[in-house]
Amino acid sequence: MLKFGVIGYGYWGPNVVRNLDQLDGSEVVLVCDKSPAARKRVQKAYPHMKVTATSAEVISSTAIDAVAVVTPVWTHYELAKAALENGKHVFVEKPFTSSVAEAEELIAIAARKKLKIMVDHTFLFTGAVKKIEQLLEEGALGKLYYYDSTRVNLGLFQHDVNVLWDLAPHDLSIIDHLIHDVPEAVVATGQTHVNSHEDVAFITLYFPDKIIAHINVNWLSPVKIRTTLIGGEKKMLVWNDLEADEKIKIYDKGVSMSAHPSNLHQLLVSYRSGDMHAPQVEQVEALRTETSYFLQCIERNKRPFNDGVAGLRVVRILEAADKSIRSRGEAVNL
Ligand SMILES: NC(=O)c1ccc[n+]([C@@H]2O[C@H](COP(=O)([O-])OP(=O)(O)OC[C@H]3O[C@@H](n4cnc5c(N)ncnc54)[C@H](O)[C@@H]3O)[C@@H](O)[C@H]2O)c1
Fold first, then answer.
1. Relative to the CA of 147, which of 140, 193, 238, 261 has its CA 20 to 30 Å away?
2. 69: CA distance to ligand 1 center in Å?
3. Which of 307, 298, 311, 331 lies closest to 23, judged by CA?
4. Closest residue by Cα to residue 201 from 50, 78, 65, 317
5. Consecutive 10-residue averages of pLDDT for the chain (334 residues)
6. Could you tell me the sign of the dihedral formed by the alpha carbons of 286, 220, 315, 197, in that order?
């Protein structure tokens, strides 16, 4: 039985506590939150669980094997570092850290101490992303052309990071997982309106082989949209994550061009418009699959695919995107 301490019981923390506590191979023995109201909520939901206001109590506890860090981004490095230094495996929220340097340091400590880091890139464990991965691997879409995501809603404003660091890690981790390549350059634009952090931002990623990815993130949208278009040479798909059923629709549509048989300077464009179909998408809670995978990785001494290095790849793009925003959209090479 793996014993967990969880630090942070705000919006996302309750999901992490519930999943870690319900798994067969683990239990949550201590939850830490600075806020008395949050600790009260833990006690009401789990009367048997211990609570504390001090993270050091979790980190130094000899009864704890692994720590989940579910606090704001600027605290991840400090808390994860202390946990690793004290011999605990770490499950840390996205984005992994606030900088590349911090991520590299945590990876080095974990390697030295032979401990696991898992970064909560939750979407990688959703039925939708697993299905898209399968379609790409089977070559159902043909050669990949583009990934274009819109992830917008009103709020929730974060106080420590801009909208890019809050919402884009989801798409960046998905893109990293699906494309199996690192981008060559990043172009990003954004603007601050309500406070000093960008609340509207757009990122473009240039990959080798002409693959392009675009992400639109916005805290000032009147409506919530979670729609991604993925286009390939053979087929295209639309993933609407807000749909209860038929989240993914695959369109047998495409364009091809060829030279005119009698006039080589004239191009013939032909559009293909075939059927649409919506494949079955697994409906298990992603965080359940992910936390269970974390236990497996620890038990079997396996490297998680969403480890610190995967977290670092996302943070590296976020850092480059921030740099590009400062210069109003100059390309930053990676
Ligand atoms: N994986 C996902 O889908 C997902 C979804 C939402 C949030 N998140 C991530 O989870 C993290 C937390 O986000 P949230 O929305 O739950 O934030 P939140 O502000 O609602 O909750 C954070 C909690 O941490 C507590 N806290 C802060 N510093 C602490 C410290 N040093 N010691 C003890 N407690 C401390 C606060 O009192 C608060 O209750 C962020 O990194 C965010 O990006 C991930």
1. 193
2. 8
3. 298
4. 317
5. 98 98 97 98 97 98 98 97 98 98 98 98 98 98 97 91 97 97 97 96 98 98 98 97 96 90 84 94 97 98 98 98 98 97
6. negative
Whether ligand 1 lies within 6 angstroms of the CB of 39 is answered as no
pTM over 0.85: yes
Exposure pattern of 111-133 as b/e (b: 16+ CB <10 Å)? eeeebbbbbbbbbbbbbbbbbbe
Nearest CA to ligand 1 atom 19: 10
Region of 176 on the Ramachandran plot (φ > 0 left; ψ -120 to 50 alpha; else beta): alpha
Give, using CA atoms, the residue closest to atom 6 of ligand 1. 12
* Alpha carbon separation from 72 to 92, 95, 179 (Å, rounded): 11, 9, 28
CA of 143 to the centre of ligand 1 (A): 39
Strand partners, 69: 7, 92
Phi, psi of 100 (to 5 degrees): -65, -40
What burial class does residue 329 get, using C-beta atoms within 10 Å of its C-beta: 0-12 exposed, 13-18 middle, 19+ buried?
A: middle
Contact 237, 246 (CB under 8 A): no
The single residue listed with the structure tokens 């998408």 is 281
Four-point Cα dihedral 148, 154, 156, 160, nearest 10: 70
